[in-house]
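Extended Data, panel c. Modelled sequence:
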Amino acid sequence: MTGVTPAVVVEDLHKDYGEFAAVDGLSFTIGHGEVFALLGPNGAGKTTTVEILEGHRRRSSGRVECLGVDPETGGRSFRERVGIVLQDAGFDEDFTVRELVRLYGGMYPRPLGTEEVIAQVGLDDKADARVKTLSGGQRRRLDLALGLVGDPDLIFLDEPTTGFDPAARRQAWGLIEGLRTLGKTVLLTTHYLDEAEHLADRVAVIVRGRLVAIGTPAEIGSLQRDAVVSFRLPGGVDVASLPDLGATPVAEGADWLLSTATPTAVLHALTTWALERGVELPALTVRRPSLEDAYLALIGSTEPEPDLVTSDSAGRVST
């Protein structure tokens, strides 16, 4: 963490709906200037937790502190220091981008410049366009602009790049990285695990309202010890002819994948076998465990969930 005093403190947080525990004893801190990602499957309690931190939902028990105050009682002075980018916000369709950003900025005591914010999110050429003419990705950029115009100290980003094409996502990543350099604290929820891996200083994984892992993306990835060896077989060579690799390779498209805790031994066996037969193994690679590998293991799934999307997906998702 980059600050001595945490920007966000969560201690033994509970939110109950009757006998159902949406949040069940959650504890973590976020440092000033840190980008912190909250990950978990649908129904894990991410949205409930974030809404409590924003001051929009009452907790059942536990301690919560954001920017030194309890968000439940922080009032206007707290909200003036917080920016919120919802997953799906509603706009007045007849406003132009410039008009809407100026309107939202007028609600804060020290807003950023309207033109500055519009440029930051890459909507310069749409500043005079009415909201109803914007594409889905452009609306998400407008969401970001409205969350930033108040120059907040703490920013909540809920699926900030949903609906973006790959180029727009990279631009948004640059914007979020810029917030870190400005000393802003960012709490990010996302289903793009490559996004969390790229942006977050630390990530927390919650399942059924409980914290199951917290650390840097590399630390979380290291929880999954097995590396993945992948290769293709040349034409006319059957997988049954391979040597003993300690486990059976699994087909994935044209490739064969093998999870192993001993990748060096597997590579040695494969390359020795190939050299003895005078054949090549196209696309032979070893991939270290990633955040996605660890995430899927932590949530107890061997297959990606329907809400887990890849880096070039453009579908809208929910938390």
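The first strand starts at residue 6 and ends at 17. This feature is highlighted in the accompanying rendering.
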